[in-house]
Amino acid sequence: MLAIDEVAAPVVQRIFGLYLEGLGIKAIAAVLNFEHVPCPSAHTPSQNRHRKMDGWQHGTVRAILDNPRYTGYAIYGRWQKVEELLDPDDVAAGHVVRFRRSAQAKIVRSREPAHPAIVSVEDFTRVQLVLRSRRGSGPTNFSKRERNRVAEKRVCVFRSTIRCSQCGRKMEAAPRSHAIFYRCAARTLLPETRIALEHPPTVYVREEHLARPINKWIAQLFSPAHLQTTVDALVGAEEEDESEQQIAVARRRIAEAEATMRRLQRALEAGWDPDGLTSQYNTAALDKRAAEAAMAAIKPAQRLTADDVRQMIAELGDMARVLDSADRMDLAELYKALGLAIVYDNDQKRADVSISPCVVKVGVRGGT
Question: What is the pTM of this model?
Answer without folding.
Answer: 0.50
